[in-house]
Amino acid sequence: MSPRPCCTCLSVKLFMWSLIAIFVVSITKIGYTAEVIKATLPNKLHVTSLYHQGEQKRPAVLLVHGFLQTRNYQTVNSLSNSLADDGFTVLAPTLSLGVSLRQRSLACEAIHSHTMQDDINEISFWVSWLIAKGYEQIILVGHSYGSLQSLVYASGNPDPAVKKVIATSLVDVEHVLGKEHVLNQIKSARDDMKNNKLSLNEFQISYCKKFIAPPDVFLSYAEWTRERILKSLPKIQIPVDVILGDMDKRMGSSWPKLVEETGATITMVKGANHFFNDAHEFDLLDSVQSSIEQAIVE
Fold it and tell me: How far apart are CA 49 and CA 45, in angstroms?
């Protein structure tokens, strides 16, 4: 008679397989393989990224999602899959925002302890990860606030392997809230810092009507005002392409012209909104692909 299987052993095996299913999932689709990469940041937080391995001779694309979102956000997910289908290597991380193995978007009303610099450090981490995989040309593609974060990264000390930033739906950070309101909030937060009032407060930023954070966290994002963005763009030493929908309600009518005057290349997609919904996702893909091809260094 065969010995009865050990229930504990079976449970352990099932548990281990479940971990593998979460962290190293290989998914075969048309023309590419997707893998979820798990990594540990220097600050000990655990993060994940979806990795589509494409043609080594083509640039790798690092995709940065929008404010408080994840890599599964529709616009980013669609762009990721489409670029992978076309043979590009694509790395689409979910920024931790201070939460290990974050899988869901972070609510505006959550307590936010992450800063803009934390986000930039994670972008830099994933750039280094791609370099370690042997990629010598990297294109940084952001969507919405992820475009701003990509530009902030590029305005600092970007790795020479990063050849271009493609900023899709680059946000006009003052259009919705109004310049006066934005500056008043910044002044109030700076006063709190000066008076050592570092407790949680309620702010407005991006689409969040209630962003709960200490003043230093809020300022790390809010101090990237329209003026600061426009002053930083000409100082970026790598090409910047900005792709905007002309029906994007999150930007003022003067925003595209002001950005173009900084030296960035502007592509306007007629009829597209902030998210490039429906048929406009193909227009976005065409524009991004064209921009990537122009950046290729032989």
Answer: 13
CA pseudo-torsion sign 229, 234, 240, 243: positive
For residue range 58-116, list pLDDT tens digits in order.
999 999 999 999 999 999 999 999 999 999 999 999 999 999 999 999 999 999 999 99
Q: To which H or E segment does residue 130 belong?
A: helix 116-132
Residue 186 maps to a domain: no
Question: Computed from CA positions of residues 143, 145, 151, 157, in that sequence, does the dihedral angle turn out positive or negative?
Answer: negative
**Does residue 178 sit within a domain?**
no
DSSP β-ladder status, 162-168 and 240-245: parallel
CA distances from 239 to 121, 235, 296 (A): 21, 11, 12
- Provide DSSP, 19-38: HHHHHS-EEEETTEEEEEEE
**CATH number for the domain that contains residue 118:** 3.40.50.1820
Is residue 152, in this structure, part of any structural domain at all?
Answer: yes
Note the pTM of the prediction, 2 decimals. 0.88
